[in-house]
């Protein structure tokens, strides 16, 4: 099983079972899951201090092992702090988020944060060791176990508990499998662990938490902010409709665009290193992405309510109406997602931070426009249009950077 095909299977499973789950669970119950995951995603950004990103960088394993330990210690620390915050402010948080049901599940956020930190750290260690098979096995196991529990608990009528427990069980499964495989294959590396070396790695890679956390936190917060705002001002059912729309329209990005990005990264990086630019592969990929996405997203734009009603059931027609409003945003996201890697190839991360900050500001303004007018569809429409504009800006920037800093001349 290749990395690409295995990843595709793992990402396809949640999409394929959605028509069944939408008949077992209500929009309100999906809203509880979406709110839980939105909280977990935001906190998890800081879980390992972003030190996990540095695991693949050192030449020697003895240095990388100590970065792994540093990242795991950070994950444990953040999860403990998260638990204390939940313990002290549970009722206030639940009231602020507008969901009584989330109160109980807040106590599980620290566990999810810890599991995310451990998994991400071991993911980069496995990438460093070129152990892609173990990553595929763990990821497919996660989505499979989550799907099975969701189905079984849904049939038994457990409500939102079935969705949240399924998600947590999937995390436990994938992290457990990956941890076991690493222990089996790499336990001889324990001897490399040294307190002074851990401190040395903390000093060496201190820029990761200083610079990466703010940009990544802004990005995740901007992406999850709609869940908070819609839940607080419009209720859990709206969040459930929104989350299904995100799952369906985001599927092509997960299944197709991510695979194209893997190929584009390799080719664009190679061209940029050899010729000082990667404009040709940028334009070719841009045209290809546009060609394969115009028809599907146009179909959602014109007929999403009918499509959602047919596939997911009549109670989800509102999600289809949201999909109509968000189709243009996902069209531009599908195109820009793979091509945005040019920002990193050209080492223009400072532009990325500015763009992410603008994204957060636009998100806040657009969402609260609908809140002010007491119309959820205006919130979603403004959100979709502002994101679309910013994705176009990102595409323009990426194209400019693809030209590089050397003359574009025909290769002999």
Structure description:
With 412 residues, this protein is an all-alpha fold. It has helices at residues 3-24, 27-44, 61-97, 102-105, 109-128, 132-155, 160-186, 195-204, 207-234, 236-275, 279-312, 317-339, 342-345, 349-373, 376-402. Helix 2 crosses helix 5 (109-128), helix 5 runs parallel beside helix 7 and helix 12 (317-339) runs parallel beside helix 15 (376-402). The model is unreliable at 407-412 (pLDDT under 50).
What proportion strand? under 5%
Domain count: the total is: 2
What shape does the CA trace take? globular
Structural class: mainly alpha
Whole-number mean pLDDT: 89
Poorly predicted residue ranges: 407-412
Helix percent band: over 70%
Count every helix, treating DSSP H or I runs of 4 or more residues as helices: 15
Q: Count all strands and give the number.
A: 0
- Series of H and E elements: HHHHHHHHHHHHHHH
Largest sheet, if any?
none
Quickly list its features.
412 residues; mainly alpha; 2 domains; globular
């Amino acid at each position: 099983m290749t990395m690409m095909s295995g990843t595709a299977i793992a990402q396809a499973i949640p999409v394929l079972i959605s028509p069944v789950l939408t008949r077992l669970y209500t929009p309100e119950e999906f809203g509880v899951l979406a709110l839980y995951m939105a909280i977990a995603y935001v906190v998890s950004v800081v879980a390992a201090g972003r030190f996990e990103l540095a695991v693949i960088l050192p030449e020697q394993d003895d240095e990388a092992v100590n970065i792994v330990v540093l990242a795991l210690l950070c994950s444990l620390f953040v999860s403990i702090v998260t638990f204390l915050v939940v313990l002290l402010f549970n009722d206030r948080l639940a009231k602020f988020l507008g969901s009584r049901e989330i109160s109980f599940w807040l106590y599980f956020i620290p566990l999810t944060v810890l599991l995310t930190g451990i998994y991400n750290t071991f993911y980069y260690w496995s990438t460093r060791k070129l152990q892609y098979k173990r990553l595929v096995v763990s990821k497919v196991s996660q989505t499979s176990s989550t799907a099975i529990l969701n189905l079984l608990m849904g049939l038994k009528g457990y409500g939102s508990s079935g969705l949240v427990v399924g998600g947590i069980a999937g995390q436990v499964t994938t992290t457990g499998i990956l941890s076991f495989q690493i222990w089996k294959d790499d336990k001889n590396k324990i001897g490399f662990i040294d307190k002074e070396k851990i401190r040395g790695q903390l000093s060496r890679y201190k820029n990761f938490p200083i610079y990466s956390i703010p940009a990544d936190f802004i990005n995740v917060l901007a992406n999850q902010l709609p869940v908070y705002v819609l839940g607080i001002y419009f209720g859990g059912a709206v969040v459930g409709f929104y989350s299904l729309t995100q799952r369906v329209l985001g599927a092509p990005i997960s299944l197709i665009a991510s695979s194209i990005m893997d190929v584009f990264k390799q080719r664009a990086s190679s061209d940029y290193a050899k010729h000082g630019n990667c404009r040709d592969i940028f334009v070719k990929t841009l045209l290809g992405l546009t060609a394969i996405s115009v028809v599907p997203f146009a179909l959602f734009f014109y007929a999403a309510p009918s499509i959602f009603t047919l596939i997911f059931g009549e109670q989800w027609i509102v999600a289809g109406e949201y999909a109509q409003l968000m189709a243009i945003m996902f069209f531009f996201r599908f195109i820009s997602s793979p091509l945005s890697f040019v920002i990193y190839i050209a080492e223009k991360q400072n532009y990325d931070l500015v763009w992410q900050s603008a994204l957060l500001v636009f998100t806040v303004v657009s969402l609260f426009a609908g809140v002010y007018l007491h119309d959820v569809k205006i919130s979603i429409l403004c959100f979709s249009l502002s994101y679309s504009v910013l994705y176009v800006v990102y595409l323009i920037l990426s194209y400019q950077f693809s030209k590089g800093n050397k003359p574009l001349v025909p290769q002999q």
